[in-house]
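Work Package 3 committed the consortium to producing structural models of liganded targets before the mid-term review. Because experimental data for this complex are still outstanding, the team generated a predictive model from sequence and the ligand definition alone, so that downstream docking and mutagenesis planning could proceed in parallel. The input record is reproduced below exactly as it was submitted to the modelling pipeline, together with the SMILES string for zinc ion.
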Amino acid sequence: MSNKVILISIDGMRPDGLQQCGNPYVEELKKTSSYTFTAQTVLPSITLPCHLSMFHSVPPTRHGTPNNSYVTPVRPINGLFEVLKAAGKNCTMYYGWEPLRDIGRPGSLISAEYVNAYAFEHTDGVLTDRALDYIAKGHPDFVFLYMVETDEKGGHDSGWMTQKYLDCISCAINNVKKVIETVGDEYHVIVTADHGGHDRCHGTDMPEDTTIPMIFHGTSFKAGEELCGVSILDIAPTIVKIMGVSPEREWEGKPLI
Ligand SMILES: [Zn+2]
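The resulting structure, written out as tokens with the ligand in place, is given here.
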């Protein structure tokens, strides 16, 4: 297997939602991947600060964005996109929530495509297909694929753990299946979430909001191994290690391989 990586973030996906969504591919992923259902995100459990922490391996107190309005950091820190770009890697992202543009600095990606959550009935599927089209043509080294519907149409519109929410997760997992089956051995695939949720919101320190699942698929990971003590800060260090790139000195997470 090559050292390329696809990172998939399914916004607002709770680990118990993933396990109860009814998609049989979840059991397949557990058999073929390393995984955890007890990973922890950062506080506050809000989309932009959590994704900035995922990409910069520091908590919001360090990157400085406390909510969904990006704050230009007083002491900037290089994130995953900047570190990979400096190492000569080609990165791209496909995303369904516009404020995520700020998780990488201008010029650190070779391309990016944003699609509004409500532009299509199944926006996540459209983003997945467009990402796969690009991968087939451009073979980028790192791809970030962000799926919006579980949070937006499932959690906020209908409520966390409602049938609609679980159906959104099942759709997202079908997209994950399509990605893994399409890219084969060319890419490692990491699947996670930024936060969970409860009722029709998130952002608190409740375990329902802060506990997230992670799945690590590819030859760098042991099939069927359950991981413990994992943080959202560990994602960027793990990805650069797979790709043979040194982490930024200030990153606080640990590689999981
Ligand atoms: Zn979110």
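Reviewers should note the following from the model. Residues 87 and 245 are 7 Å apart (CA to CA). These observations will guide the Year 2 experiments.
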